[in-house]
Structures are given as structure tokens and as C-alpha cells.
Amino acid sequence: MGRPSHEVADILGAVDLPVITSNTWKLRTLYALSKCRTAALGGHIDRCDNPKCNKLHLSYNSCRNRHCPKCQGHQREAWIQQREAELLNVPYYHVVFTIPDHLHALCLQKPMMLYTMLFKTDWSVIKGFGENPKFLGATTGMIAVLHTWGSNMSLHPHLHYIVPAGGINGSGKWKTTKSKGRFLFPVKAMSKVFRARFLDRLNKAGLLDTSLHKKLTDRPWVIYAKRPFYGTAQVVEYLGRYTHKIAISNHRIRQVDDGSVTFSVKDYRHGGRKATCKLAKEELVRRFSYIFYPKGLCVSGILDCSEVSVRRNTSTWFVRKQGGCYYLLNVNPSS
Q: Does position 318 have pLDDT exceeding 50, yes or no?
């Protein structure tokens, strides 16, 4: 893939950022992205150690922001390498939980609270179905990644989960799902539990009035589940596309005019067909700022069977706790 013709940083530099948002956290992010790899962030000099070359190379510093189109490649590869040692030699499922659009206003007003609710509720659903003997009867795990945007840069909060096809039973042994590889758990049943538990959290937080409750219960909530992955190599490759994915990359920008930007999108209402979307520069930056993660939110995590007692000297499995998350590091399903 060659060098992109247009960059997000150029668009950010062409608009009055304080007019777009007054939120200081979002402003700092926008400014960082607009100055990434420029003299404004300083730089460093490298000398080639080849005697035939011995040239000096000037490189400008990166902003390293989570939302920057220029900074995610290296961070993605580093993240993948860390995960490779932690993946299990079992099939995996891809499950997506989505917040209904009636809650988008609350997501903008209280993003930390709503996204934390989403993490906790989704994990309770997966964990509960896994522990139910009807479906698995074991404690499973997951890797979760939060995305807050859709392809057209609209607000679209949803969580991607990678879930192993099994878990650890009460005897400390690996147990495979009962569906014989066809599905993880029944998605319609999961959707009902997901809605009920999320509404309960909203009610306890004082955020659920009669009108909102009716809107949220008038239609079913959707949980999307893909067929399982086979082989850790496939899982790692897939994770690489999601863990450090950003709302819009420089390569998606097709054309930049005096007042507008045209970029490529996927029309998921028509089977993921490729299309283009044209927005005013100010509107593009406004949408971009809406989907920034709130300060302090951990947007990805790994949880597993922390309640089960383990022994590090067995080859069956063991856990490590870091940053409030439990990491399932090693499982031998045949043991």
C-alpha cells in the first residue's frame, strides 16, 4: 500500500478546532493528531551504521495517540506479539454486542458510565451462559475490544469479543462447547439476557425513565456471532484488524475539496458493499471527536476464570493478574 494522497491531519489543520468542540480532552486529542510527525512535536536524529552510508536521518516524533491514523501500525504489532503467547490452542468465536441507537445520547453525555456498563454487562452474559450446564458448564474467557464508530463516522458503540470454544470446569479440566462447533451459545437467548441486565444497570443508575424503557423494549437487541476460528494464527491475524483499528484511516480519504471530504465506507445494509460518503470538513471532524474514547477508559481487556483455584506447576492452565484483568495463559485441552 503506497503513501496516501490525503491525511486526516491536513483536514484537522484546515478547520477551527475550538469551534468544533469545547471539551479539553477532545481538543488535546485533535491537536495531537494534527501535529503528529511534524516539527511541532520535536524529532530525533539517527545515523546509519553502515560504513558505506553513514548518513544522518531526521525523524519527527509521533503523537502515539490511540485515535491517530499514523501511530497504530507499530502499536498493533506489539499488541499482537504480546497476545500470541496467551492464545489457546482451541477454536474461537467472534461475538459483537451493540448498544441500541436510543442510548446514543446517553453515550455522548456519560460515555465512561455507559461504556463501563457495556463491558460489565456483556461479560456477565458470556460468563453466565458459560457456567450454565445447559450450554457449557465451565468458566470461559474472552478478549474484548470497544469500538464507538460506524463506517460512515457516525456514533455506533459496540464491543467485539473473541471467545474460546470452551472453558475450565469444576475439576480444572478443559470442557468444549456442546454445539459441536456450530455456535457458541444461542444468540437470541443471549440478546434477551443482555437487554434485561443492561436495563437493570441503567435503572439502578437512575438513567431509565418510562419513555426510554419503552423505546428500548419495543424491539429486540442484536448480538452478532460469527462462525468459529480454527488455529491461533487466524485469531492473531483477526485481532490485528480490530484491536488498534481507528475510525478513519488516511487511505480511506478519496478526495478533499475546499469545504468537503469524500471517503470510502462499507454499506452494511447492503451486504458490506463499498461506497463513498461526502461530508463537510467541520462535520467530519465533529463526528470524529464524538467517537473518541473517554479519558481513563480501558478499551480492551482479557478476563477469564478467576474464581477457580489454579496451580502454576500443572500444564492444564494458569492465570496471571495485571492491571485488574486476569490473563488465561496456557491451556492443554486434551489433559
A: no
